[in-house]
Write a structure and sequence with these properties.
563 residues, alpha/beta, Methionyl-tRNA Fmet Formyltransferase, Chain A, domain 2, disordered C terminus, globular, six-stranded mixed beta sheet, 2-enoyl-CoA Hydratase, Chain A, domain 1, Rossmann fold, 3 domains
């Protein structure tokens, strides 16, 4: 069928639905719903058999839904209505939720139901992580079922009962507000996680107004409620009445008439406002029983090491790259045969931190430093020849983050992942040794096509291309355990030693033909040419991306940033 996706943002869910439908043979096109909403003439131009809206913040006009069947993905179970469904569910502490695919009618979320899917809500997971994980899995399942039912021509969607509907308005900042002098840590965390990463919780701090983005429990530090106690790798620790929480990111409230603001590491956002509090590095190997937050951790199970990392939005600045490289070098001193890279769930990596670059006094210099730091990390993985390295992608990966994964010997990918192994939409030629690793995996022709077309790739399609070596069919909560079992089998396999030996010999042969330093120098020369040119599209594209504004020069079907 010809399926048209209309979306207010080409975010992780929109990309996931596009990939799932394309993998099943449907001809899928994408039409952005900009500030003016869905345009009837734009829909008519595509002449679709079916319209699907994975993420839509504006109502579909009657001129469209009366002419075409339009399926809306609502992140709530049947009967739930309203624009803040997921936020309210998380702030209310539900342990089970759902996704509904319903038909567009004159009233929002009131149309007949074509399909639905339910899921468990894991404890302690923020909204953005849940959205890219369990919500996306349930949405993909429900959309595929709804499309199958529509294509059959025999299915009648189930009308909703107005009397049974739970209708809630947009969740205001007043409803999200934290009372630091009265609320326990558990309540503060629910509020923070329900607003992560958008819109954040509006709060006053150090004489300014900020949206607090993300929250993690601290199990040791205490102090006067509401006060800042410490910093850790860009995050700030703030006291509650019975403990404290780590807040990784802040976004300044936009002043009238001023440009849109964007999220930054909390300590960087506060700048000179930050009081003289101690910097307390996160423990790489925390003692058993500790629940403090750290964005990089190392664990061992027998002959397998696990270097786990999780950065907000999957973005990696200079500090993230250098700390991860330091931890990687520590991991290499351990007596393991297999080293697994990647977090337990959510993003693997999306490459360089465009927000930190945009906020820098010299964005060109910060861009160069960030790329150099990413290259150092990727080169360390490529030159590891005494053990096997596995990149375990629990969540999505893009640009330099995708190339970090390709530096490993094997790439294992959760079935719900979406990969964007390209740089073109940010006006960049790319680095992280992609000119060496990508053609080596998929061939020169496919590598060129991936870079040129700049389309998202599903886990299954990536397996077919050779981008990944294994797809792990499981939900987000089960991925880490399945990877651990597979890694232990790999470490105990009879062929392990011969594989490590063959890997070392292959690296030596490749180095003799063309040193890694040459690949790196050639890529960096092109990248520096972009960074140092103030007229290069990269600078305008970067600025628009971090502010979630339309990106000049990008095709309209792709002109929507990841949430």
């Amino acid at each position: 069928m010809r399926v048209l996706l209309v979306a207010s943002a080409f975010n992780s869910l929109s990309q996931r639905v596009q990939c799932e439908l394309r993998d099943r043979g449907h001809a899928v096109s994408v039409e952005p719903a900009g500030r003016g909403g869905v345009r009837p003439d734009a829909v008519a131009r595509h002449a679709p058999d079916l319209v699907v809206a994975p993420m839509l913040t504006a109502a579909i006009p009657e001129e469209v839904w009366s002419a075409y069947t339009c399926l809306i993905v609502h992140p709530g179970p049947p009967g739930d209505r309203g624009p803040s469904s997921l936020d309210r569910a998380l702030q209310g502490g539900v342990d089970r939720w759902g996704v509904t695919v319903l038909q567009a009618v004159g009233e929002m979320d009131a149309g007949p139901v074509w399909a639905s899917a339910a899921f468990d809500v894991p404890a302690g997971v923020g909204k953005s992580d849940l959205y890219r994980g369990e919500v996306a899995d349930a949405a993909a399942e429900a959309v595929l079922l709804a499309v199958e039912r529509f294509s059959s021509g025999t299915y009648a969607p189930v009308p909703q009962s107005p009397a049974a509907a739970s209708v809630f308005p947009y969740m205001s900042q007043e409803e999200r507000r934290i009372d630091w002098l009265r609320e326990p840590t558990s309540s503060v965390l629910r509020r923070l996680r329900a607003a992560d990463s958008h819109p954040g919780v509006l709060d006053r701090l150090l004489g300014g107004e900020w949206y607090l983005c993300g929250g993690h429990e601290e199990d040791t530090l205490t102090g006067p409620p509401g006060e800042l106690l410490a910093t850790r790798h860009g995050a700030v620790c703030r006291a509650t009445v019975d403990g404290a929480v780590w807040i990784p990111q802040l976004r300044p409230r936009r002043a009238p008439g001023r440009p849109a603001t964007f999220k930054l590491p909390a300590a960087l956002a506060l700048g000179d406002r930050l009081p003289a509090v101690p910097e307390l590095p996160g423990p790489l190997r925390p003692p058993a029983g500790r629940s403090t937050w750290s964005d990089i951790r190392y664990e061992e199970q027998g002959a397998v090491g696990f270097l786990r990392f999780s950065f907000p939005g999957g973005a990696m600045g200079v500090d993230h790259c250098r700390r991860l490289l330091d931890a990687y070098r520590v991991a290499l001193t351990r007596p393991t045969d297999v080293l697994v890279l990647g977090g337990r769930r959510d993003f693997f990596s999306n490459g360089i931190h465009l927000g930190v670059i945009e906020a820098a006094a010299d964005p060109a210099a910060e861009s160069r430093a960030c790329i150099e730091a990413m290259d150092d990390l990727v080169e360390a993985v490529l030159t590891t020849t005494d053990r096997l390295v596995v990149a375990a992608l629990a969540g999505n990966a893009a640009a330099g983050g995708a190339m970090l994964a390709l530096a490993a010997d094997e790439v294992w990918c959760r079935s719900g992942c979406v990969l964007n192994p390209h740089y073109r939409l940010m006006g960049l030629t790319g680095s992280e040794f992609w000119t060496y690793t990508l053609p080596r995996r998929v061939g020169a022709a496919a590598a060129g096509r991936l870079m040129r077309e700049a389309e998202p790739v599903s886990a299954r399609a990536a397996l077919g291309l050779g981008l990944v070596d294994r797809v792990v069919e499981c939900g987000p909560e089960d991925f880490a355990a399945q990877v651990a079992r597979s890694a232990e089998r790999l470490a105990s396999s009879a062929a392990l030693r011969s594989r490590v030996g063959a890997k070392k010999a292959a690296r030596e042969r490749d180095e003799a033909v063309r040193p890694l330093s040459d690949w790196r120098a050639e890529e960096l020369k092109r990248m520096r040419g972009v960074f140092d040119d103030p007229e290069a599209p990269y600078h305008a594209l970067r600025s628009a991306f971090v502010r979630k504004q339309p990106r000049p020069g990008v095709p309209t079907t792709l002109d929507m940033p990841e949430l």
